Amino acid sequence: MRSRSTVDSLAVAALGLLALASMAGGTNASFTATTANPSNLFATATLSLSNDKSTAGSLVSLSNMVPGDTANRTVVITNTGNVGFTFTGNAAPQIATSLWTDTVNGLQISVKRGLTVLYTGALKNLAIPASGTIAPAATDTLTFDFSLPTTADNTFQGLSQTFTITYTATQ
Q: What is the reported pLDDT for 37?
């Protein structure tokens, strides 16, 4: 016959096993709550510029220039995007003639922003330095003075030079 303490120990052990078994297969109740950050969005800016002389020949188209002739023109650069930018400018020939390649007697240019001279020298080497920041919808006006030097000799007769000035914006 078993002692009472052994029976009591077995009973306690059985109850413990039953309690563990009921917890393993049963439910465990607890409270939960959630919150969210819905509809998050990242959108990029639009960097865009235009100028008021963007059609062929609209900045300058001159015929019959002689040494000493000059032509004054303006161009307005507009920020058509939604972010501020700075811009630079340079020139490139379609086909280079002596008007382009001769940096002393060929075409010369001076570029100004207001009273500030940005560049003076051969058209071939045109490098308009970075502007200040142009805000969205704002404009910047550049003045160009094109000239054929008085030192241009008879080898420049009958020549023509087509070129493009390109403005590059950087955010």
A: 94
Element of type H or E holding 122: strand 116-122
Tokens 């029976």 -> residue: 7
Structure tokens belonging to residue 69:
């002739």
Which residues fall within 8 angstroms of residue 133, CB to CB, at 6 or more apart?
A: 84, 85, 86
Beta bridge partners of 121: 109
Tell the burial category of 22 from Cβ atoms under 10 Å away from its Cβ (0-12, 13-18, 19+): exposed
* 13 contacts: CB under 8 Å, gap ≥ 6: none
Q: Which residues contact 143 (CB under 8 A, 6 or more apart)?
A: 72, 73, 74, 111, 112, 113
What are the tens digits of pLDDT across the range 78-128?
Answer: 999 999 999 999 999 999 999 999 999 999 999 999 999 999 999 999 999
Report the DSSP pairing between strands 108-113 and 86-93: unpaired
- The rounded distance, in Å, linking the Cα atoms of 126 and 118 is 10
> What's the half-sphere exposure (Cβ side, CA atoms, 13 Å) at 25?
5
Residue 16 has pLDDT above 80, yes or no: no
Which residues, in sequence order, are bridge partners of residue 79?
49
What does residue 119 show for φ and ψ, rounded to 5 degrees? -160, 140
d(CA 121, CA 108): 5
